[in-house]
Amino acid sequence: MSDSNQHKPWQGRFSEATDAFVEQFTASIGFDQRLYAQDIRGSIAHARMLAHTGILTTHESESIIEGLQQLQRDIEDDKIDWSVSLEDIHMNIESLLTGRIGEAGKKLHTGRSRNDQVATDIRLYLRDQIDNISAQLKRLMQGLLDLAELEACTIMPGFTHLQVAQPITFGHHMMAWFEMLQRDYGRLADCRKRMNQMPLGAAALAGTSYPIDRQFSADALGFDKPCENSLDAVSDRDFAIEFSSAAALIMTHLSRFAEELVLWTSAQFDFIELPDRFCTGSSIMPQKKNPDVPELVRGKSGRVYGNLFSLLTLMKGQALAYNKDNQEDKEPLFDNVDTVHDSLMAFADMVPAIRTRPDNMRAAALQGFATATDLADYLVRKGLPFRDAHEVVGRAVKLGVDSGRDLSEMHLSELQSFHSSIEQDVFDVLTLEGSVNARNHIGGTAPEQVRAAVTRARQNLS
Ligand code: ARG
Questions:
Q1: With a 6 A CB cut-off, is 28 part of the ligand 1 pocket?
Q2: Whole-prediction pTM value?
C-alpha cells in the first residue's frame, strides 16, 4: 500500500492538501479492496449501459471494459499497489484505469456516484457470500441427515435442566439441530431475495440527469430490479443488518450444538468421539484431547453478535441520505461473513466424523429413571388419573434412589406394592426401546419417525 500523495478526483474545490492523518483516518482502501471484483463488475455493467443509451460511444465503452478486465487480472496477479491517498477501492480503480486508457477512463463515472457504486458493490458481494455460506450450511445439514439416519435406533438420555428426563434416539437429537439450521437456511434465502435490488442510478442521492437505463444494468448484474427510491438506495444498510441477524442466529445454534459436543466428549459423558484431527492437545497435560473446534465456534458467536450491534448502531439516527458513517459497515460485515462461513465449514467437516458410544449413552439413560413417565402412562392406560399415576411412580422412584436401582430392575411384586394394577407387561414399557418406540407420531423420537423425518428433509433439501 502506498501513501504517496496522488491527485484526488474531488481536489478541485480545495485550496490545501488533506491533512496526512485525516487521509489515513478517512481511507477505507485497507479493507474495501476486498470489493475489487464487484466494483469492476459493476463498472463494466455501467459502461455497457452508457454505450447502450448513447451516453458514451461504443469505442469508449469497449476501451473502459477492456481496461477494467486487464486491471482485474493484474489485481489477481498481485501486481497492484493500492494508494491510501485515493481513499477507497472505487477511486483507486478509476484512477488506475484512467492511468492506463486515458480520456475514456475519466468518462466512466458519468451518471453515477461513489454512493450508489458502493451500495451496489456491497450487495453484489453479500449476494455471492450468502451463496457460499448457504452451500456450507447445506453441507452441514446433509451431514446431520446422514448421521441421524445411521443412528436412528441409538438410544441416549434426553435432558431437561441437564438432568436425565426421558430416553430419546441420537438420530432424533441430530434432527433437532437440522430443524434449526433449516430455518437459518430459509432466513439467508429471504435476506438475499429482499437485498437483490440495484442501487446503481441513484447516483449521489437524487438520481442523475443523464438518460440512463437502470433496468439494463440491473439485468446485466443479475438484480431483480432497480431500487425504487434513490435516497433509500444509497443510504440504507438494512440488508447487512438482516444478514448479520441471520448470521447471529446461526452462531447461536452452532454455539448450542458446540456446547453439547464439548459435554459429550468429556470423560463424564463420553457419549461421542471426535477424531483427533478436530482436536488439539495440551502443552502441559499429556493426556488431554480438547474439543477446540466446537469451543472456538462457541466463542466466535460473541464477535458476530458484536458486529450485528455495531451495524445497528451505526445505522440508527442517520439522516437521509448517504453519510460517511456507512463506510463503517464493511469491517463488521466482512468479519461476520468470514466467521459464519468458517464456523459452518468446520462443523460441516466435523459432523460426518462424529463416532457415537452407544453403550455409554444407554448406561446413562438407565441411570436417571428415564422411563418413569412411561410407567405413569402405563398406569393411566390401566385407568388411573394422570396425577395419581404421577404420585405412585414418584414413590417407586424413591425406592429406586434409596436402593440404587432403575425401575426396570425391580421385582414385579415390589412394583405391585405401589399399585395393584401393575402386571408383568409393565416391563415392556420400562425398557428404553419400549419407551422410544412408543413415541411414534410426527416429531416423536421413535426410530421409525426419525427415518421418516430424514426422508422428508432430504426431499425438501434437494
Ligand atoms: N468509501 C466510501 C464508503 O465506503 C464510498 C462512498 C464515499 N462517498 C462519499 N460521498 N464520500 O462508504
A1: yes
A2: 0.94
